[in-house]
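Chain A, query sequence.
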Amino acid sequence: MCPPTESLPAPIKVLQPKHKFLIGALSLSTISFLVATIVLAATNKSNSSSEASNAASSAAAVSASVDFLTSKASSNFFATSDEDNFCAGAKLAFDNKLCADLEVPTPQAGANVTKGYVGDLDVGDLVPNTKPYWQSSMCPVNVHWHLGSEHYSVGQYDETGNGPNGNIPRPEWANRDLSGTDSNATEGENQVQDGFRCLHYDPNDAKFTTPYNWQHCEGMEVGETYEVHWPHSTAGAYPFYDGVFCNLTLETFSTLGAQDIANAVGVHGQVFTIVNDESYFYPDMIRGMIVDKEMGKDIHIYTGSTTGDKVSNEMCSLYAPITWQVDRKCHMISASSFDKMCYDMKMQRDDMSDDLHAHGSRELVNDDLAANNQYYPGSVRRNLRS
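Chain A, predicted structure.
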């Protein structure tokens, strides 16, 4: 609210000649004093700037000589046993189940997030949480990523994209065919099921092909597409892998309704192409979707499930219905941004070493398992499959 308007000043009186001499003398004295003050302040500022610069240089020298990972290992604040992780073993155990055996199908992720898409699974009155997660007291509990994109966004990350290891085609039911394994992996290698690629990759541009010297992430590649997920929860604890429902017992969880879960648990999803170019550096990827410039502005919101290559259109995840907020656009980001995130993950109290590499991607969710409750602020929903 604006401050109240001040009353107008009283009219200025006309000065008599006898007052003018005194004011002139006082003005000269004031100006002299002001000049001296400015000179002194400038001198002090110069000295202070020099001291601050020296102090910053000294601090930088000290920081450069400290191995923070070694410091963590020797710190009594970071115990190595599960006794220090009160979320250890707190993950609620829900085995994946054949989708056909479910009396009430659970909406699955990752789905088509192209603007206007609506799934065929009628979820009734269930709605996703459309607020920024922090407004619902939902905090990030971990971070991980998948090779290629699990979601599908026409013209952003789809079968027309490319990367150093190619792409995957459309599945058969949507004029696509997913092989189920990385077609570029050779026998004996760890095969990771991959997803769709972005359209940024250019084999003639050095930023997509110049190798990066990875220090903390594992098995990553410049030019590749990765989908990053940040699970959030009101019932969890950061940064524990088991932490999504860390503060809930199975008995308490079983009393929650579908809408309660969708309101309390959500995931941020954002898709990136890795480049070796520091102009795309972002320093803080660990705490949630990047919302900066064009990043995090065009969002698809719906209810789904957990993902990964252990679930499919035959085997459903029972960790549902949770809210998904997915950036429809693919963005370029520097390899150093990911490496900094992996470093930050190593510095957390919990052991996040199992997530320093890309996980396999789920096949695109069939329309029959995709919820029909997509949220589009300011637009009319329509089905793109017609």
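The first strand starts at residue 97 and ends at 98. Residues 1-46, 55-63, 176-190, 380-386 have pLDDT under 50 and may be disordered.
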